[in-house]
Amino acid sequence: MAREIVDIRKEEIINACEKLYKNNNFKEITIKSIGEKTTFSRTSIYNYFQTKEEIFLALFQREYEKWIDDLNKVYDENDKLTKEVFASKLAHTIEKRPMLLKLLSMNLYDMEENSRIDALVNFKTAYGNSIKTVKKCLDKFSITMNEQDKNEFIFSFFPLMYGIYPYTFVTQKQKEAMEKAGVPFEYLTIYNIAYKGILKLL
Q1: Does 120 share its domain with 68?
Q2: Where are any strands of DSSP class E within 36-101?
Q3: In angstroms, rounded to a whole number, what is the distance separating the alpha carbons of residues 187 and 167?
Q4: Separation in Å, CA 27 to CA 21, 59, 80, 82, 97
């Protein structure tokens, strides 16, 4: 099968997975339900992905690649940025990627554990490239930070991203439980949390 056709079909499978994941949880989604959203048979999916986790991992990889594109635009389109403006621009790149944040906060272990090593390597490459791109932006825009400061930023900023989604997408059931438990809740946007966190780390 021609490489172009393989890529088109893989993209269609990933798109179907993304569409389902917007309204369903990870456990509810199956190879069968993903196949029903494509133009070819369910069994054909196995020509491209061996498990549903590999499909999710490919979606995850694509989200990192899109984020890297946005980071590179910040890098290429600006010569100098103040700490506040850089924090704002970086926060806006995260704001555009709620799917990335959702994937980060849920089922990462399952996705990695139930995927072939080559799929995992491709994903880790995209993840690693996102770290390198954030570091490249720090090198350009944060001239007051030394190398240790930049490394500390990286190792604090990436774990911060894991926790953003659960604080910004809260179900009615969760709100009701927090209210009954007497837990104060303030709605914050992805941008709010990312900007404040980045600014403190800078």
Answers
A1: yes
A2: none
A3: 8
A4: 10, 16, 45, 44, 22
Mean pLDDT split into 10-residue runs, the chain, 202 residues: 84 96 92 90 88 96 98 96 96 97 89 94 97 96 91 96 90 88 87 96 94
Return the sign of the alpha-carbon dihedral for residues 96, 141, 160, 175: negative
Look-up of token digits 């010569």: 79
Q: Does 127 lie in the same domain as 83?
A: yes
End-to-end, the C-alpha distance of the chain in Å comes to 49
Q: Which two tokens stand for residue 200?
A: 């403190």
Determine the Cα–Cα distance for residues 24 and 126; give it in Å rounded to an integer.
25
- Range of the structural domain that residue 26 is part of: 1-48
> Quick one: 44 and 64 in the same domain?
no
Q: Is the residue at 53 inside a domain?
A: no
The Cα–Cα gap between 76 and 137 comes to: 9
Whose tokens are 């709605």? That residue is: 187
- The total number of residues written for the chain in this structure: 202
What residue type is 43 in one-letter code? T
**Threshold 0.70, pTM exceeds:** yes
Q: DSSP class of residue 10?
A: H
Residues 194 and 173: their CA atoms lie apart, in Å, by 25
In a domain, 54, yes or no: no
